[in-house]
C-alpha cells in the first residue's frame, strides 16, 4: 500500500505555530516565528537591553543566540517528523511528536552579536524514525552571519 507524498499544509503549519506559542521562554525573549515551510523555518529576535551579554560592547548574549538557533531547529525537526510520520493515525503521530526534544546542539559563534534584529533560518539535514538533524544560521539585520548551529532532536 503506498501513501501520498507529504505536503506541509495549513493544519501542520498551525500546529508548529501553536507549539511555538505554548513555550513561555520563546515569548519572554521576544522570538517571533515569521516563516514555516516544508523547506525551512525562520524566526526573528529583536535586540533589547535584557539580551545584552557584554555590556561594554552591547552585543547579544551567547545564550540568547543558542536559544534562537535551538528553537528554530526544533521547529524544523517537528516539520521533519510530520513528514516522516504523516501516514500514522493522528493519536499515534501526536504521541510521537510530544517527545520532541533537543539531544545535542553545537553552536559556532562566528562574530559578535551586533545588531538590532537577529534572524535564524533552519533547514533539515536528515529526518529519521527517531532523530532529526537540523542546520541553523543566525544573521543580523545587515545579513552578517553571527553564528551557526547543528542540532540533533529526538522526534519520535
Automatic annotation (TrEMBL):
One of its GO terms (molecular function) is fatty acyl-CoA hydrolase activity. Residues 57-146 form the Thioesterase domain. It comes from the Bacteria. InterPro entries: HotDog_dom_sf (IPR029069), PAAI_dom (IPR003736), Thioestr_dom (IPR006683). Keywords: Hydrolase. It holds the Pfam family 4HBT. Gene3D superfamilies: Hotdog Thioesterase (3.10.129.10). It catalyses: a long-chain fatty acyl-CoA + H2O = a long-chain fatty acid + CoA + H(+); a medium-chain fatty acyl-CoA + H2O = a medium-chain fatty acid + CoA + H(+); a fatty acyl-CoA + H2O = a fatty acid + CoA + H(+). Its EC number is 3.1.2.20. Belongs to the YigI thioesterase family. This is Medium/long-chain acyl-CoA thioesterase YigI.
Amino acid at each position: 500500500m503506498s501513501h501520498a507524498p507529504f505536503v506541509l499544509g495549513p493544519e501542520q503549519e498551525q500546529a508548529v505555530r501553536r507549539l511555538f506559542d505554548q513555550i513561555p521562554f520563546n515569548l519572554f525573549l521576544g522570538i517571533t516565528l515569521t516563516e514555516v515551510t516544508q523547506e525551512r523555518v525562520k524566526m526573528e529576535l529583536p535586540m533589547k537591553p535584557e539580551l545584552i551579554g557584554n555590556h561594554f560592547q552591547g552585543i547579544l548574549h551567547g545564550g540568547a543566540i543558542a536559544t534562537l538557533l535551538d528553537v528554530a531547529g526544533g521547529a524544523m525537526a517537528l516539520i521533519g517528523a510530520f513528514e516522516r510520520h504523516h501516514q500514522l493515525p493522528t493519536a499515534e503521530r501526536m504521541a510521537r511528536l510530544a517527545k520532541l526534544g533537543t539531544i545535542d546542539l553545537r553552536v559556532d559563534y562566528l562574530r559578535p552579536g551586533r545588531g538590532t534584529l537577529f534572524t535564524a533560518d533552519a533547514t533539515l539535514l536528515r529526518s529519521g524514525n527517531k532523530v532529526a538533524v537540523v542546520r541553523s544560521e543566525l544573521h543580523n539585520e545587515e545579513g552578517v552571519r553571527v553564528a551557526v548551529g547543528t542540532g540533533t532532536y529526538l522526534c519520535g
